[in-house]
Write a structure and sequence with these properties.
There is one protein chain. The chain has a single domain, classed as Cytochrome c oxidase-like, subunit I domain (Cytochrome C Oxidase, Chain A, Up-down Bundle), CATH 1.20.210. The protein has 13 helices and no strands.
Length: 438
């Protein structure tokens, strides 16, 4: 798998890093929202505060990091050089950042013009990214599960954002749409057809490379991405057109897709060759266990009427999937991708005259471990807040601020290392250039 990598095609470091540095800010805002809203947020998954919190994480945190990662992965892993990456990243970053803020304001105020503004900015930003990424991938054959998964994930993203724009416009322009049904389908496409398919495509490379695990099974890599999209599509059609029994069976298959990825990933992680697990491996393991727990909660809610009637079960499922699952795995990826990118760019800039710092020194291990523990505490407090919101919503909000503030500080520290070493490289090269040649 590592033979696919082409390090010399890495885009300018500013392209992915503007997304990486913005993402924790939205995590901090999610904590502030918890403190502001209080226990009312946990009354239902449909409260304005719960919807705002969900999109602060899914669009503000997850989408930012995923776009930043794809900007790096497309050329390095797939050999797909995105034209004008700095321009694309600048436009997309500005559009989705503003669009996320507009969407949060829309949920908290339910004023139509904020929904319209969110739809325009998020729709335009994502459309620019999809167009640029699809053009870069258009001539690249799907010779590996990663390349095929990246292509299919763009399709999943296109449907997800299309449904999101339709939902926003239904509030902004009073469109007569089946909002509850579309919201559930939007969630399924976002979490499985976009998020899980992209995570799997990236995982085929980064899990064996950074965690020293065996490769994903061949059968899984060949069939997972296309099967996931097909199952989500069948479920979407069944939800509109098929009897309830068929729709329930197809929704069970969608949940099984997420559970399969989590189970396979846990299996290969157990066989890691590392003598001692680092923060990334702990974060990935917690993420996969949380995803399996979310699937189990969904199954129990469908099978046990008393649980299914409890309004808190979707919130419990959401906390496990969003914070315990996606946020954990994304933080774990950042702690490998960011030091690696800084090392790679400094190594190239050093031109063999100045060696790049060791990757383990770019972000201190103790700082990563402290932030990881703060994140786990925030996840635990959020889970407790689902059951006892009056007691735990404020500690959960504070913990979320601390965890994402710590992540931001760690990323800024990594950038400080990058800038300091850049100055060292410039000084050495200048001094060598000024020396007279014999």
């Amino acid at each position: 798998m590592q033979a696919l990598l082409s390090y010399d095609q890495s885009p300018p470091i500013a392209a992915p890093f503007r997304f990486f540095l913005t993402a924790p800010v939205f995590g901090i805002l999610a904590g502030v929202l918890l403190l502001w809203s209080g226990a009312d947020l946990f009354a239902s998954r449909w409260t304005p505060e719960a919807l705002a919190l969900t999109h602060l994480i899914t669009v503000g945190f997850m989408l930012q990091v995923m776009f930043g990662a794809m900007l790096q992965i497309l050329p390095v892993v797939a050999g797909a050089n995105m034209a004008r990456p700095l321009w694309v990243s600048g436009v997309v970053h500005a559009a989705i950042t503003l669009g996320t803020l507009f969407l949060v304001l829309a949920f908290l105020s339910f004023l139509p013009y904020w929904f319209t503004a969110a739809a325009v900015f998020l729709g335009a930003g994502v459309a620019v990214f999809i167009a640029a990424a699809a053009y870069a991938l258009s001539g690249i054959p799907a010779t590996s599960p990663t390349i095929g998964g990246l292509k299919l994930s763009l399709l999943g993203l296109a449907v997800t954002i299309g449904l999101g724009v339709a939902l926003s416009l239904s509030f902004g322009a009073s469109l007569n749409l089946p909002l509850l049904q579309l919201a559930n389908i939007h969630l399924g496409w976002g979490f499985v057809a976009w998020g899980t398919v992209l995570l799997a495509a990236v995982g085929y490379v980064v899990v064996p490379m950074f965690q020293l695990t065996p490769a994903y099974p061949d059968w899984f890599g060949r069939g997972f991405s296309i099967s996931a999209l097909a199952i989500v599509l069948i479920w979407t059609i069944a939800d509109f057109a098929a009897p309830d029994s068929v729709s329930m069976f197809s929704s069970l298959a969608v949940v099984a897709v997420a559970a399969l990825f989590a189970g396979i990933t846990l299996n290969i992680q157990w066989r890691s060759k590392r003598a001692r697990f680092d923060a990334t491996q702990h974060l990935w393991r917690v993420a996969m266990c949380s995803a399996l727990a979310a699937c189990a909660v969904w199954l129990l809610a469908m099978a046990v009427p008393a649980l299914g009637e409890w309004p808190g079960w979707p919130l419990l499922c959401g906390v496990l999937l969003l914070f315990g699952g996606f946020v954990s795995v994304i933080v774990g990826m950042l702690y490998k991708i960011v030091p690696f990118l800084i090392w790679l760019h400094l190594q190239n800039q050093g031109q063999g005259r100045v060696m790049a710092p060791n990757m383990k020194k770019i972000i201190a291990e103790q700082a990563m471990n402290c932030q990881m523990l703060a994140h786990f505490v925030s996840c635990a407090l959020l889970l407790l807040a689902v059951f006892w919101p009056e007691w735990f919503v404020y500690p959960a909000g504070l913990a979320l601020i601390v965890a994402h503030g710590g992540l931001l500080l760690n990323l800024l520290a990594a950038m400080s290392v990058y800038r300091a070493h850049q100055q060292k490289i410039a000084a050495v090269i200048a001094a060598q250039s000024s020396q007279p040649h014999p």
